[in-house]
Amino acid sequence: PDITSIDCVSVTGAGGFPSTFCGTSAAAPHIAGLAALLLQCKPSLKAGEPGDNPSADRSALRNALLNTAHDLGPAGVDNIYGSGRADGLAAATSLCPAITPSPTPVGTPPAAVPFGDVDCSGTITSVDALKVLRKSVGLSVILPPWCASFLGDIDCNNVVNSVDALKLLRHVAGLSVTQTPPCPVVGSFATPTLSPSPSPTPTPTPTPTPTPTPTPTSTPIPTDTPTATPAPTDTPTPTP
């Protein structure tokens, strides 16, 4: 054989089947699929190209598969595995030119952004309302680089919530939107003036009052009083 491919495989997903199929019934389609992918990444090898050289094209495609295969069994080409197991990525790397990614277009910023145009596209749409709703529930909001800040607080109360999204949807539908001055009219080009957030009043920490330690009262110790010993009294003896 020239090259080896995997077999005894099963296919999952749409149109797949769990039973394995082996031998050339599996290996040959894998090699054919790899060859098709290589022709896709290097279309100049296809037949019918200007200045086409079919023999050279076939050799280039064949060599890309054989020269990048993983060697199996005895070193080098053998009669069991051929050049080895095909490696599609290695073959494409050797045959196809490196792809230079194109820079992602960033678009052109509008000349002016109306109040309520959350994504800074130049117009107010339901997409702006959706971004406000995402912001209100804590989800990420992707904005273009020229959109310096998130202008989703439509009613200028320092909170972004579903009320702001509702105001945008009313504007998109052509309904009236009530704003409280100095909050700008939705769709105007005025700069919003946000209500100042109240400064929190610090709560004084009470100073603990020390508890006086009671002075112990001394108990007087009684003084021992000596017991007087009575003096003996002389008793007269009668004369006989």
How is this structure best described in words?
By secondary structure, this protein is mostly helical. It has 2 domains: 9-95, no CATH class; 107-196, Orthogonal Bundle (Type 1 dockerin domain). It is built from 5 helices and 2 strands. It has helices at residues 24-41, 54-67, 88-95, 126-136, 162-172, and strands at 9-11, 17-21. The chain has a two-stranded antiparallel sheet. 15% of the residues are buried.
What does the average pLDDT come to?
82
For the biggest sheet, the summary is: 2 strands, antiparallel
Q: What coarse outline follows from CA principal-axis ratios?
A: flat
Query: What's the order of the H and E elements?
Result: EEHHHHH
User: Could you tell me the radius of gyration in angstroms?
Assistant: 48 Å
Give the low-pLDDT segments: none
SS field, number of helical segments: 5
- State the total count of DSSP E strands: 2
Under CATH, the homologous superfamily of the largest domain reads Dockerin domain
Beta content? under 5%
Describe the structure in brief:
With 240 residues, this protein is mainly α.
Please render the helix and strand layout as text.
Layout: E1 9-11, E2 17-21, H1 24-41, H2 54-67, H3 88-95, H4 126-136, H5 162-172
Antiparallel strand pairs: 1-2
Helix pairs in contact: 1-3, 2-3, 4-5
